[in-house]
Amino acid sequence: MNEDNLSFKGNDPGAVRYGNFINYYQFHPPATRIDNLPDHLWTQSGEHCAVLDIGCNSGDLTIELHNFLQKKSQWKQVSTLGIDIDDLLITRAKELSNESISFQCIDIMSNSAYEKILMHLDGIGKKRFDIVFCFSITMWIHLNHGDDGLKRFLKSLCDICEMIVIEPQPWKCYRTAVRRMKKSSESFPLYSLLKIRSNVETDIENIIIEDGRFQKLFESVSANWDRKILFFQNMKKDDNK
What we know:
Elements: H1 24-27, H2 30-34, E1 45-54, H3 60-72, E2 74-84, H4 87-93, E3 101-105, H5 113-123, E4 129-135, H6 138-160, E5 161-167, H7 171-183, H8 200-209, E6 214-219, E7 230-234
Parallel strand pairs: 1-2, 1-4, 2-3, 4-5
Antiparallel strand pairs: 5-7, 6-7
């Protein structure tokens, strides 16, 4: 279901500042994302695949992504970390954790975020993540941290992983988020200052590939909520990862 239509169908999830909807997976079930992942990109092999899911919410999709990779990839072991800004959601997610899947309350835009993430990598004997998933979180980072914040986030991703799997929200989703916030008498103060606007998906792609490290591998078809999943691979390999 398209989020733009939720309020008109009597299924409005309400207004949130960071995308931390309490019942998010009621209107975007994990299976809809998994069904939109291709089968042919998971050809890597090795002993240990480290995965990061940013904006994991209550962990439902994180679990399905972990299971998908265990089934589709050639890695002998998959370790997955899900992070979210909302401690209540992480508390719920931790009920799903096991020895291979863990969750932490981390604001990816905080000063300490990458220190905590690197500590996790060190704990599993890795230098970088093999795959980072970012499903529908770029808009929230953009609205709360502006153009520079979005760019900083995307560049930071390139520094910590080998593959980026990202699902940007199109500009119409920004308008919906702003409209919902106005209904609750709140606002996104940086919204009017954004210069990255109508071509936000293309701009995100260009930021990721502009320094030549990452190359776009694949773009999925649009899901039933009008979003595509973009896949980027680090082409400058480092054996010590």
